[in-house]
Amino acid sequence: MPASPLQDGIIACQIAVSGHEMADTVEIVSITVKSRIHRISEAQIVLRDGDPTTASFSKSDTETFVPGHPVEIRLGYDNRPAPVFRGIVTGMRIRADGDGSALVVTCHHEAVRMSLIQQRRQFHDLTDGELIRRLCADHGIACQVTDTPIRHAVAIQDGQSDFDFAVTRARENGLLMVDTLDGVRVGPPDVENTVLGVSFGTDLDALDLSLDGLTQVPAFHCVGPTGDSTQQAVSIEPTVNRQGNLSGGELARRLDTPPQTLSVPTQTGIEDLQRRADAALLWSRLARITGRLEFQGNSGVRPNTVVDLRGVGQRFEGLAVVGGVRHEVVAGNWRTQIEVGLPIVEQSQ
Predict the structure, then answer these.
(1) Would you give the end-to-end CA distance of the chain in angstroms?
(2) Closest Cα partner for 44 from 311, 328, 308, 284?
(3) C-alpha closest to that of 329 among 43, 130, 136
(4) What is the DSSP letter of 280?
(5) What is the rounded distance in angstroms from the CA atom of residue 58 to the CA atom of residue 67?
(6) Less Cβ around it within 10 Å: N or C end of the chain?
(7) Helices 128-137 and 162-172: crossing angle, nearest 10°?
(8) Residue-wise over 71-85: b if at least 16 C-beta within 10 A, else e?
């Protein structure tokens, strides 16, 4: 079984802004880092600031947290912290209440630049992989993309941000878009990348898991005009994580769920119909088991990795796909919460 998140030692927390580490004399109230598949990672840093005797907020007055400055957050144990977030400062606010006064710094992954403007434009003679690379390159963001085979005569961006358009093109190919410490990665579910093992009764502190048979279908049929005729492609069962003892296909059979049909109104080819059908079934399978797990802070778990889950019964134990990660440091205590699977409602947002 992979390594447990349980570790001894003192929590190590470092924040660097514009390449300079924040002084140890700065009191960190809390740190929250959130990252999810198909979303832009964000972080919130709360620092003690504000002096009522001088009527000032000295930390907010400095140049350190001016929006646009690069930020890196590292978490770990015994002076061996590892990066869990890289991005830029995007905003700040000050607050004062019964618990004291503070400066709240908001940060986002640099891919946030791709989300600022909705555009209407056309792209010609590109594969979806090439299109995603171009969208990222337009904003200076490094991008690793799995090659996609189909070349489109035209692809229309209709009132979407560049980030949302990239996610749409990735999803149509059954690919997950995840921002990383060094840019953006677009690829299939990494079902072999098991980074952590957790067990109920040992190192798993909280859990809430659901098995939803209503999200499962036996197959998708994708229908569309190809040349002078109409053709149909039937989805092929994807390779997904081995979790629980009720597969998506078995759940669909038990509920007598019929195949679903997808219609493509424009001229296309059988290869395009096939990839759409395959992608739709993949999203169904990733929604089979969803929920959350919480355990001691760990920097190794990231979206589109796998956690080996034990001690939760035959319906749920096995390899859980990580759909999202939340790190929270408060009062010297570091907790990590992960989202399991990819709920249908999340996929549609």
Answers:
(1) 35
(2) 328
(3) 43
(4) H
(5) 17
(6) C
(7) 160
(8) bbbbbbbeeebeebb
Contact call for residues 151 and 127 (beta carbons, < 8 A): yes
Strands (E), 22-62: 28-36, 42-48
Do the Cβ atoms of 94 and 52 come closer than 8 Å? no
> In angstroms, rounded to a whole number, what is the distance separating the alpha carbons of residues 239 and 103?
46
Domains of the chain listed by start with CATH number: 11-110 (2.30.300.10), 113-187 (3.55.50.10), 213-286 (no CATH)
Joined tokens for residue 31: 């740190």
- For 216-240, what is the HEC assignment? CCCCEEEEEEECCEEEEEECCCCCC
CA distance 297 to 119: 40
162-214 pLDDT, tens digit each: 999 999 999 999 999 999 999 999 999 999 999 999 999 999 999 999 999 99
Burial of 158 (0-12, 13-18, 19+ CB in 10 A): exposed
DSSP 148-172: --PEEEEEEEEEEEHHHHHHHHHHH
At 280-294, the pLDDT tens digits run: 999 999 999 999 999
CA distances from 265 to 39, 257, 280 (A): 29, 25, 17
Sign of CA dihedral 142, 147, 152, 156: negative
Apex CA 135: angle with CA 130 and CA 139, to 5°? 135
Tokens coding 277: 């059908």
